[in-house]
Design brief:
467 residues; alpha+beta; 2 domains; 17 helices; 48% helix; 14% strand
């Protein structure tokens, strides 16, 4: 070290980092990731899911059950806690990244970057926490196995689709290991680049579908939300009532209670503003709050406190919708060290900024007067997703590759791509192991779903299938 240099911890050479990965491979063989079987002390999956409902809005709990009961895949989407409990019993290399915690295929999609470019990335970080990279890979791979079964594809095709996600992850990590640090940080997938991937593979139909999805995503902004979610009342826009999925605050409580809630919301808004950069505080100050409502979102998140806030800029034709979503402890925190951030909303925001190539300018966090923690973001900012329900075998295989690339790039930003790549190697040993794991876990998911659905059908659990 020269007299002008200083250390921020140990700075290892590429050779030393590769050695760490290879040592991890010896300690935890890649083939060991194929292992999965429910142990004799495995917690009851339905009890794990129901245990999350204690502090949720009770009138929305049946809606959550109804959305999870649609299929094995929707159940899997809402069962992140179940899988986190199972993954805690599986082998891991000891190499840590900022994990998504819920990296199933429906948590990837399009959104608008601050530079007004449509990008594809991970878009859900409710469970993010530093943890084993393998957990995200297994959650993603198993989601493709389950989705393929849901689409009625053959076992052989489902194995190919699943393996494609893992192979793409491995190959991308090798690319990230061989490039400059800044190139890793700047790497992203724009809509144009995604389209070029499809065209290079001769997938003209997939390209047309992607362009259609992009056009639809760009139509989803605050103006579109205003048309869909609001109406004019006495010359002023107000959020519509569509119980139980969209309920304005004015419909929930009496006037005195509403006043107390609004005062708490104002304080929470001020705290949220303080978490933003000064330039973005200035931007936010050009809007004024107009109305607020409870809004049901997602599958597993249903029942957590989620609000949408309508604001106006220069006039009523200049709306901004913010989503205020409750952040609870990550399901990973039951098995890994707790987050360094005391506010779970901050945990989500910091994790999102670390994993995404670019993030919403309105990201922030707050805590309510009742102690609930939240993260804030735009409700609609060119957000879109792939149409998995109608995807064919080839399309789902290509989409698996795109998701594998995206997850590897996200992990490379916070983890050590050289060590992880050295662990993975250049062969297909890891791909085959994760594919085998995914088959076994898909079987377990079907069993868990049958137990959950049975409890609804026999009346043990009450579900609202219309929400």
């Amino acid at each position: 070290m020269t007299e002008h240099a200083w250390e921020h911890g140990t700075h290892l050479s590429p050779e030393e980092r590769r050695a760490i990965g290879k040592a991890a491979r010896k300690a935890v063989p890649r083939s060991s990731h194929a292992e999965w079987s429910p142990g004799p002390n495995r917690p009851d999956p339905v009890a794990l899911i129901e245990g999350q409902d204690t502090d949720r809005l009770q009138w929305l709990v049946p809606v959550r059950r109804g959305r999870m009961s649609v299929s094995e895949f929707t159940f899997y989407r809402g069962a992140a806690r179940v899988m986190a409990t199972d993954l805690a019993t599986t082998p891991d290399s000891g190499l840590t990244v900022q994990a998504c915690g819920d990296a199933h295929l429906s948590n990837f999609g399009f959104y608008g970057s601050p530079e007004r470019t449509l990008v594809f990335d991970i878009n859900d970080f409710d469970e993010t926490l530093p943890g084993p990279w393998e957990w995200d890979v297994k959650r993603l791979a198993a989601s493709f196995m389950i989705a393929g079964r849901d689409r009625g594809f053959s076992d052989a095709d489902n194995r190919k689709i699943t393996a494609a996600s893992v192979a793409s992850y491995r190959q991308t990590m090798a690319q990230m290991a061989g490039t400059r640090t800044l190139n890793v940080w700047y790497a992203h997938m724009s809509m144009d680049e995604l389209n070029n991937v499809f065209l290079s593979q001769g997938a003209t139909k997939a390209s047309k579908r992607a362009q259609k999805a992009a056009k639809k995503a760009k139509s989803k902004d605050s103006l579109q939300a205003l048309r869909k979610l609001a109406e004019r009342v006495d010359g002023q826009y107000r959020i519509k009532s569509d119980h139980p999925v969209l309920v304005p605050l004015r419909d929930l409580v009496d006037e005195a209670e509403r006043g107390r809630i609004l005062e708490g919301a104002r304080k929470s808004f001020d705290e949220y503003r303080s978490t933003m950069r000064p330039d973005r505080q200035l931007l936010l100050d050009r809007f004024r709050p107009v109305d607020i409502a409870v809004k049901v979102v997602g599958v597993g998140s249903v029942g957590t406190r989620c609000y949408i806030l309508l604001l106006e800029g220069r006039d009523e034709a200049d709306p901004l919708f913010l989503q205020i979503k409750e952040a609870t402890k990550s399901v990973l925190e039951e098995h890994l060290p707790a987050s360094r951030w005391r506010n779970s909303g901050r945990r989500v925001v910091q994790g999102q900024r670390l994993m995404q190539s670019s993030s919403d300018v309105f990201l922030g966090w707050s805590r309510s007067v009742l102690g609930h923690e939240y993260y804030w973001r735009q409700l609609r900012d060119w957000k879109g997703s792939a149409d998995i329900d109608s995807a064919g075998r080839k399309t789902l295989t290509r989409y698996a590759g795109v998701c594998g690339w995206t997850l590897a790039r996200s992990h490379a930003r916070s983890g050590d791509p050289i060590a992880i790549s050295a662990y993975l190697g250049s062969g297909t040993v890891f791909d085959k192991a994760i594919t085998e794991f995914s088959e076994k876990y898909a079987d377990q998911n079907e069993s868990d779903y049958a137990e959950f659905d049975g409890a609804i059908k026999d009346g043990t659990l009450v579900a609202d299938t219309d929400g």
